[in-house]
Input
Amino acid sequence: MEKEEEEELLRNNNIEVGRLHLVQDIQTRWNSTYYILEKLIEQQTILYLLATKFDAVTSLTPTQWYSLEKLLRLLQPFD
Output
């Protein structure tokens, strides 16, 4: 995907470019995994858009997204 196409895709879907950064997992901190899952859910829309634009990219199923959201709610008090 060309940079112009990426920017247009983001703009058309009201997605802030600054919010599209990766979170790295740190083995000695369990909550880094929590933050990765949290960021994944935040970026659900852009991931869905990319999956529909490119055949090689697959998205999670609605059941999988729901399970992740429930898991985050369960872990949130420990953060």
Helices lie at 3-12, 30-42, 44-53, 62-75.
